[in-house]
Design goal:
By secondary structure, the protein is an alpha+beta fold. It is built from 14 helices and 10 strands.
Length: 398
């Protein structure tokens, strides 16, 4: 019974192929729009998560700021030690300073930046090495002239296909020996390139480039088993005490939690994606109205045929099933075309905008199911109307 009904539905759709295609345009556009919006939302989320992960997972960044009197007080090594020793859940703490420099090697020069760090900084930021080694304890303590360089620096001033390990290069007037190449960190915010940097021992950069013992900012990695909000509160209390801030005075530092940023981004992008997808989904309703309209036209055109079927013994429910099946097949056909179109649009736009393409199987399956449900909902009234026609009156219809 169902197989015969399905074959008849395909026959009727094929008989008016152009009209059937135009009828399903609303479904096609609606499904494609929903899939494209949700896929792009996922792509944006993944792209932002990758940028945040390049900063390190479960990391606090603590920056000095101007106080209420316009005074700027930088951190120092004692602040780093205090955070390491007095805050529970801390895995590693590292201070960092940086300066803009010109990297020179083999007659090539390139504008870059030097970052004064230690091995704790590499741990906190999750920085791996593609080649070479980390700093030794003796090198960090003495502020040795050794450096770990980024992929961009390697590409710009070293010969292609050669290893920079053991080579000497200059940063402005300071010579250093390359002991490692760190893995790509990409870019984070503002279009900056974190691969275009040179890492040197903190004391060396303080002595040779900044001329101060100050710390630019602190990176604090923590155990994910600890509550980040409680750790933030403990950090605030410790730093306020160390910086002698009285009650009522605002903090002259800022704490940024990468885990909290990640959660906020996911929540915000997810909400926006749902809203945009819901707006795009309105076209599905419009497409459903179009399906109902064309099915009513089909009932009117085939009134005499319906009368003949009823007169020779067809049941009303069989006629109803016939027209309902046609509506569902039309919507499923539109849903499949919409999925293909949505896949192509989301893939193309993700590549055009520079986002990673994310295929979401769930939204594709859900879109197809929704398109079938639209066929049932909007096809029921025309099918019901066809099944309730009086056979005698239907046979008289011209």
């Amino acid at each position: 019974m169902f197989g015969t009904t399905l074959l008849l539905s395909f026959r009727e759709i094929r008989r008016h192929l152009l009209r059937s295609f135009l009828t399903t345009l609303g479904i096609i556009i609606g499904v494609a729009a929903v899939i494209t919006m949700v896929s792009l939302g996922r792509s944006v989320t993944v792209d932002i998560e990758e940028q945040i992960s390049s900063l390190g997972s479960n990391v606090f960044f603590i920056f000095p700021m101007e106080g209420d009197r316009g005074q700027f007080r930088a951190f120092d090594d004692r602040d780093v030690v205090a955070v390491r020793e007095q805050i529970a859940g801390v895995k590693s703490v590292a201070g960092q300073v940086e300066a803009n420099v010109v990297a020179i090697h083999n007659g090539q020069d390139w504008e870059s930046k030097v970052e004064g760090v230690n091995n704790d900084f590499l741990d906190a930021r999750g920085i791996d090495l593609d080649e070479g080694r980390r700093f030794t304890d003796a090198e960090m303590e003495a502020g040795a002239n050794v450096c770990i360089i980024g992929p961009t620096v390697v590409d710009e001033i070293f010969l292609p296909g050669t290893s920079p390990l053991g080579e000497r290069m200059r940063l402005d007037a300071v010579s250093c020996q390359v002991i490692g190449v760190f893995a790509t960190r990409g870019s984070v915010g503002g279009g900056g390139d974190d691969d275009n940097s040179v890492l040197m021992p903190l004391t060396n950069v303080q002595r040779r480039f900044t001329g101060e013992n100050n710390i630019g900012y602190m990176s604090v990695s923590y155990d994910s088993a600890y509550d980040s909000a409680a750790m933030t509160a403990a950090l605030v209390n410790l730093l306020r005490e160390r910086r002698v801030l009285l009650d009522g005075q605002p903090n002259d530092f800022d704490i940024v939690d990468t885990a909290a940023i990640n959660e906020t981004v996911q929540s915000t992008v997810g909400t926006l994606t749902v809203m945009v997808a819901a707006i795009a989904g309105i076209s599905l309703v419009v497409g459903g109205v179009g399906i109902m309209n064309i099915m009513l036209v089909s009932v009117t055109e085939r009134t005499r045929e319906i009368g003949i079927r009823l007169a020779i013994g067809a049941l009303a429910r069989e006629v109803q099933m016939q027209f309902l099946t046609e509506a569902v097949v039309l919507c499923c056909f539109g849903g499949l075309l919409g999925i293909l179109l949505g896949f192509g649009l989301s893939y193309g736009l993700a590549g055009l905008l520079g986002f990673p393409f994310v295929f979401d199987l769930a939204i594709n399956v859900l879109s197809f199911v929704v398109s079938a449900l639209i066929g049932i909902v909007f096809g029921y009234f025309p099918a019901r109307r066809a099944s309730q026609l009086d056979p005698i009156e239907a046979l008289r219809h011209e």
